[in-house]
Structures are given as structure tokens and as C-alpha cells.
Amino acid sequence: MGNLTGWHFLILLVVILLMFGAPKLPGLAKSLAESLKIFRSGMAPSKDDEPKTKPKSTE
Hints:
By secondary structure, the protein is an all-alpha fold. About 60% of the residues lie in helices and about 0% in strands.
């Protein structure tokens, strides 16, 4: 089941083209790219996530 070859991917590509149609694919790719961009920005640590520590006093 884990032996996917180039022919398998080619057949999958043809099936996807038949299902979604060629005119819809650019919009689908753009939507996927925007979703990945939002996901990556959400995974990046932000400045608000840093733990706030009190400075050590020298007394």
C-alpha cells in the first residue's frame, strides 16, 4: 500500500483535473497557499508569548 510510484501520482492528477476542472485549479491553489501562510504565521512565536520575568534586584 505504501509503494506509490510516478504513475500513481499521474493518475491522481488526472482524476483531480476531472473532478475540479482546469479553470478552478488556480483558485484552489491560491486558497491553499493563503491557508498555509496563515497557518505558518500562527505557528510562529510572537512577542506576546514570551514569558515576562522580573529583573533581578541587586539588593
